[in-house]
Amino acid sequence: MSAPVEAKDVAALGATMRTKHPTRPDPSVAMGEPLLQVRDLRVAYGGIKALKGIDLEVRRGEVVALIGANGAGKTTTLKSIARLLPVASGTITFAGKNLATMTPEALVGAGVSLAPEGRAIFPNLTVLENLELGAYLHRDATAMRETIEDVTRLFPRLGERMKQEGGTLSGGEQQMLAIGRALMARPTMLLLDEPSLGIAPKLVQQIFAAIRAIAAAGVTILVVEQNTKVALSASHRGYVLRTGEIALSGNAKELLQNPEIQKAYLGG
């Protein structure tokens, strides 16, 4: 059995990943400059205000964590960015483009991929078929082959299970597959919704080591996560969402040391 990604391998693995899209030009946004900007975002379900005017940004090359309790609005935020939910008001821009009129398919074409909460793999398709579907917009044979190679280096378990149906995988393996499928589109930005949900702690560490490797390859990441310590430890900055509003934001290491965060989310 192949060895999992370890922390010491992250930088080396990230340096070897092929992330350039076969046809889409790189965005004209320099590393460290805002790539995703959300301004005064409001979303409602019926009469319930799920998001109450949040502001956040993700700079190119960053890993940013969005944390908070159940029902805080984390997944609503990610689904709104991914164009899976209607927005009541506010703006979402990616590389200077207004996402308001984009379809989810157009968003993938623009360079944003989502690995959704609950994984949403196709259980009756093989691991390989699930991965190939992630490249449905470009279908470039060379890019597909290279990315499958990169994904199996990130997640060796998938390489051992290419002919298995997705539904036979463990929860952790399905999460690996969901991330791998999102990478097949060669995104500039990756949205991750609860990648540790329902997964054994050992696999959580492997998945977040792979996330750090993906970031080291130059992919910008916004991750929604309930596991506050793991998420902030893998991130540059973080936002704390509380009942539809941004309660705190800042450097991830500083947030980990914040007494309010420790008391509310770390059992301190």
Could you tell me how far the N terminus lies from the C terminus, measured between alpha carbons in angstroms? Answer: 39 Å
How do the strands line up in the largest sheet? 6-7-8-3-9-10
CATH architectural type: 3-Layer(aba) Sandwich
Helical residue percent? 25-40%
Question: Biggest β-sheet: count, sense, barrel?
Answer: 6 strands, mixed
Rg, nearest Å: 18 Å
The CATH top-level class label: Alpha Beta
Order of helices and strands: HEEEHEEHEHHHHEHEHEEHH
Number of helix segments? 11
CATH topology, by name, is Rossmann fold
Secondary structure class reads: alpha/beta
Q: What is the number of beta strands?
A: 10
What is the overall silhouette?
globular
Query: Mean pLDDT across all residues, rounded?
Result: 93
The fraction of residues in strands falls at 15-25%
CATH superfamily: P-loop containing nucleotide triphosphate hydrolases
State the low-pLDDT regions, or none: none
Overall number of structural domains:
1
Multimeric organization: single chain
Supply database-style keywords:
globular, alpha/beta, 35% helix, Rossmann fold, 268 residues
Q: Could you explain the architecture of this structure?
A:
- The protein is built from eleven helices and ten strands.
- It starts with 9 loop residues before the first helix and ends with a helix.
- A six-stranded mixed sheet has the order 6-7-8-3-9-10, with helices on both faces.
- Helix 4 (127-133) packs parallel to helix 7 (171-183).
- The protein is globular, with a radius of gyration of 18 Å.
- The model has no long low-confidence stretch (mean pLDDT 93).
- The relative contact order is 0.20.
- It is α/β, with parallel strands linked by helices and 268 residues long.
- It has helices at residues 10-16, 74-81, 104-110, 127-133, 141-154, 156-159, 171-183, 201-216, 228-233, 252-257, 259-265, and strands spanning 34-45, 48-59, 63-67, 89-94, 97-98, 112-115, 189-193, 220-224, 237-242, 245-251.
- Helices cover 35% and strands 24% of the residues.
- The protein has a single domain, classed as Rossmann fold (3-Layer(aba) Sandwich), CATH 3.40.50.300.
